[in-house]
Structures are given as C-alpha cells and as structure tokens.
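Listing S7. Sequence submitted for prediction.
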Amino acid sequence: MTNWKLRELRDGRRRSFLKMCTVAAAAVGVSRTRLLDFLADEGGYGLAEAAGATYGRSLVVPCPNGVFAWFQELWPHVDVAMRACENVVIPAFVNISNDAPNLVNPTLNPSFGFASSYLYTTQYGYTPANGYRGTYTPGKGVAMPPLPSGVKGWAGGYRPFFYGPDAPWFDHQAGVPKRPVTALMAGSDETHTVFPSSATTVSGTSTLLASLASLGASSSAAAVPAIGIDPVKYGRAPGAPDIATVPSANGMIDLFNSAASQLTLASKADQEIFEDYFKAVIALRKSASRTSWAPQLAVTKNAARIIGLNFAAQLTPTAQDLVAYGIQELVDSSLASSTYLQPKQRERLEEFGRVLIVVAKAFALGLSKTAVVSLSPGPTSDQDFTDPHAVFSSPATLIMGRNTTRHLGKILDAFYEHLAQFNDPEDPNQKLDQTTSFIAFGDTPHTPFLGRGWPDPTPNSSNWLYLMNPKGLVQNGWFGQCVTTPVQGRRGLAYDPLTGKDTTQDTILVTKFSTTAAVYAVAGGDTNKTAEFGTAASALPALLT
C-alpha cells in the first residue's frame, strides 16, 4: 500500500528523500534492489524509478605541475616507443611552434638522450629476464610489422597504440588488453600549472569535469554526486552539481559522514519523514530480527533522529585493501629503503592508492558518481615524482622510476578489480567496473623525445588526454600522435575527427572533439544528452564505435 506523503513529494523534496534513503540503505547494508522494491511499494513505481540513474560514473585524474609525465610510461607514443625499443637514435629536433633550444641534439650523440624518454629500453638499463618491453598494435587493417626484440603484437586494436610493461588493465603474458585505452591529442602545453585546463574544454558553455559530473548527478540519488581531491579546477556545464573538495583520503571519509548527516537533518519536515522511513529501511536488513543486533538497531534509530549517519567503517581502507592496491608492499621494510623509491614517490603513490580505495567504496555504496582525484598536489620543487625531471639522471633513478610506474599501474589495476566485486548500486545488472570510465590529463606530459632532464616543452606545444571506457563506445588507440620524423615540419600531430587521420593542426584545435568523446562514453552513447554540453557526437564519427 502506497503512502500518500511520499506520492506528494515533488522536485527538491523528492530528491532529498531519495538521497536520505540511499545513504540509510548504504549505512546499514541494505541492497539497492531491496531498497527500490520497498520504495515502489511505499511511494509507487515513479518514486522507485526516480531513485535510479541513466548515466555512468567517472574517475577523473588531473595531473598538475608535470606529474602527467608518468602516464607516458604506461601508454607511450607509438612511434617513439617502437624506435626506442629498436635502439634507434632520433635525429636532431626542435620544437617548431615553440622553439626550445635545450631540446636540440645537433650532434646526434646517443648519450644526449638516446632515442626517447621511454624507460623500458636497453639504453636505459632495462634488461628483464623475460625481455618484455611492451605490446604494440598497428591499428585496424594494418599488417603487423617486424617487431623489436621484447615487443609483443596485438592485432585487435582500432588505431595504433603501445602498452608499456606496467600498463594497467592488460594481460601482459598474453599481450592482450583487458580494457583497451584511447589516447586523444587535446589542449596545449601549460608548463607549470596547478590547474591544467586547456585539455578540458567541451564547448563555450561546458568543461569536461563539470560535464561528467552533470551526467553522474542526472537522476542520481548519490549523497555527494561529485567529489574531488584538491586542487581542482571544475568549470561549468548545464546541470552540473557543486563539487565537494577535500585534501586527502581521510578528508573524503569525513566529508561523506558530514554530507549524510546534513542530508538527514536539512529540515524538520524532511527529518520527520526520513526518521519514519529510516526505521523501515533498517527492517529490510536481513539481520534486523536477530536479538544480537537489537542494541545496535536502537542506537542507529536514535542516531537517525539526532546526528545522522557515519560511514567510516565502510569507507576506511582495510588491511586486505592495502595489499590488493600494492600499498602494503610500498611500506614493507624490504622496500622501504630509498633505493626502491624516493620518499616523495612512495608518499604520493600511497595517498593516491588510499584515495582510490575510498572512491571505490563510495561508488559501491551509491554515495557518489564522479571523483576528481589529482595524482599529486605537490610543488615543482619535487622533481622525483610531481615534476619528474630527475628520473633519467642515473641508473639508480631509472630503477626507482620503473618502480614508480609499476605501482601506479598496479593501483589503477586494483581500483578496477575492486569495482568488479560490486554491482552498480543504480544498475544491479552491471558491475561497477563496467559503468566507470577513466580520464587523465595534465599541464605537461614532458617531451616524449628526450630523457636527459626530461624537459617540459612538448613537440609543437602539443598535449593529450587518456580515456578508458569499459563499454568500448570510443575507438581505442591514438588519435593524433608525436612522431620522430617530422610531417610538414611538425612532430606533434592532431587528427581529423571525420576520418581519424593525423593532421598538422595544433592539438588545441581538436580539444572539443576529444572531450566530447569522453562525455559520449560516460553518457552511454546517448547522442542527445552529449549534445546538451555544446558539441554534438555527430562531429566526431571517426572516434566512436
């Protein structure tokens, strides 16, 4: 029998009530399906449907102050990585549109920088027992060429791509990706910037972060639709919620506790409805009838009326989580020496991993939809991790650089394995890893061509972003690229969104196509919704499946 009070809820009050029920169910361990069945009985199917959502989740990783360079070691530019693995010396070059004399190598002396800044080559002392240096895909319809020693080939990619030996979401033994990655030229070199933004423009009315958050908040009952780790430059988009920012993983846990409490205590009228229904939601819990749970039940009912809810136990990383994400390995005594990682490398990786554990748990509880997690808020004075100019300085720093890349890949791998353990709370027919997209961008990726000092200026001031969309709605591989042999005097190439072919445009001119591809992916291929943010999906047919 339906309750007329719930049928009369409209707009903001309905949304508040649904958020209250969502956090209540999450707090006491009631499944999303069980909650929706209950809401349908009490408030009609319209109320239950309003508690669902249409669009996906996002993990967005802005990389300020040069830390974006690490992603090149996971997914390097194809031509650069292949030439490096062939031990080829790249001819002298200069950044055509932004001359940088320190990048010129007029003598072609290999000791000046070898072939590139790719860590996994013999020039940089990489000699693993299995000889593996990465996996190459030539792209659709292109024959597999002879491969350098230690490089595997995968013929299933749409566009050319290269997966480094520590790339996440990849079966390196078989040489096949579990979740293929797309790299899209976008934005321009912004060295050094705490708030990288040139690669985030969707249109004159929308930025990428706000657009993804808007999609996540649409029809969602998440208590905190968008959450970020400082620093964040959010921007705007139609329907974008406010983003809540915190400084750390612990701050994120505190925020969810505070947000849940504020929701349940927002107004006297809402509180009265919520108190009644919170007690009903608790009754849905399978253990509610057990006498052993009776004292906790009484306290929890009173807490709903007095102080709200607390998620610390559900969100705090466990010992098992720390092992799965490789964080325990980072702090084990055998790896704690400075010969394995520099202190800043260990510190930043550990915090990044802890934050992603909390994000995964918050997604699983239905508390949030969009997480913006900066890889490192550190200053450029830290040149071991935040702005890693020192990586190629010596055999010792090269080893620590590869250890850093290994743990970064492991953390990202573990995040999606963690998500795969849970059904999406807003779509029980799918696992969370199937509905969560990954996007990373930064101020400067550092040049792909030179290891010594790993300079900031990029070829033709180019920049790019990485996208992993589990549903494969965007073609995988590189769109645009950096090449060792100039094309019409340029080494940083953009792409044509109609054909996918490389062009000699500045990469900032294709930004809106790259960001719209990410929006389209999170929108689940909904072209009408994508167009609401200012750029239509029809403008980029070569990028979409």
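Caption to Listing S7: primary sequence and predicted structure tokens for the chain studied. The radius of gyration is 24 Å. Confidence is low (pLDDT under 50) at residues 45-51, 93-113, 261-268, 286-308.
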